Amino acid sequence: MLTSLALIFLVGLAAAALCARIGLPRIIGMLLAGMLLGPHVLGLLDPSILSISADLRRMALVIILIKAGLSLSIDDLRKIGRPALLMSFLPALFELLAVVLLAPRIFGVTVLEAAILGAVLSAVSPAVVVPRMVALIEEKRGTGKAIPQLILAGASLDDVFVIVLFSSFTTMAQGGRVGVSALLGIPVSMVSGTLLGMLTGALLAWFFACRHARGKGIRSSVKVILLLAVSFLLLAAEEALEGIVPLSGLLAVMSTSITLAMRSAPCVVDRLKAKFGKLWLAAEAILFVLVGAAVDIRYTLSAGPGAVVLIALALLFRSAGVLLCLPGTPLNRRERLYCVIAYLPKATVQAAIGSVPLAMGLPCGSLVLSVSVLAILITAPLGAILMDRTRDRLLVAEP
Description:
- The structure is a single chain.
- By secondary structure, the chain is an all-alpha fold.
- 51% of the residues are buried.
- The model has no long low-confidence stretch (mean pLDDT 85).
- It is 78% helix and 0% strand.
- The chain contains 20 helices and no strands.
- Helix 1 (2-21) runs antiparallel to helix 2 (26-37), helix 7 (90-107) packs antiparallel against helix 16 (305-324) and helix 12 packs antiparallel against helix 13 (249-263).
- It starts with a helix and ends in a 5-residue tail after the last helix.
């Protein structure tokens, strides 16, 4: 495992630096490094690290979501309330609808199988989007109209909606029934995750303040460790309460860090953001190299040109969904175009659940995995490049 970790960091960071040198986003190099090192090409990664790949990717996501939460403010969230809520489900719903309408005609699958495929495809990748939005907030680019905050909040909630739908459709495909309670689980998981995170963040802020008041202040590094430990417990709580109370662990993590930032001194928050920024340098390599390692390029050949057409048309529907979320906001055409671009990339969720239908033995399993892999290879680089190349032209920097 140690050799595999060394390869992940050395090859991943070297490939990222090479891509940055030729003007491409760093994540492209990391994804390519993962595909090269993974079991489907050179097979240099130890099976033991691949077996915990999903957990390592979640840990990396937790780090960037905490940093994102520390960068958000309640005032900004109040400003973007309605559009952010719409962007958490409407673009995904439009993309899902497109796949349900088109996949039966292109691939000859049933409507339910198309719905499973659509649920896998319709999740935006927080791993690609969130770091870029955090960077925009730190640079104060587009923050005058809370554009990065809007995209950040919507993208973080988008996955909750999609994963619940995916679970419902696969249950139906296996002969099970999905009741109203499953659909009600979407808003319930969002509310419960937010409330639990607010409570956790308030308790952490109180604990840190009490220690400081008694002259026994906690070092920033220890605060980082405590915050990470609590965040991992929140994710564990989601799994422990499954079937009892719907709970979004990732949303709980973000609301914990938002509440902690709101109730802590600015100097404390700045130190925590700096610490998590350094942690992200390592976490980013782990996340994207392991996402790349999960990609089996062989499946792209079986997908065929029909899959490319489906992905392109589904993205058009998704873009229309994003635009329908923005009427009534002060965003101009350029800024709305940037919101559309930011909602293009797919990677993390598709790598995590793309192979699940095949493992379940569903007839559509091979197709879902093939199209998922192709969606990652097309949209992750495309979205990252477009976000990086258009940010200065489409978004205004605040003084």
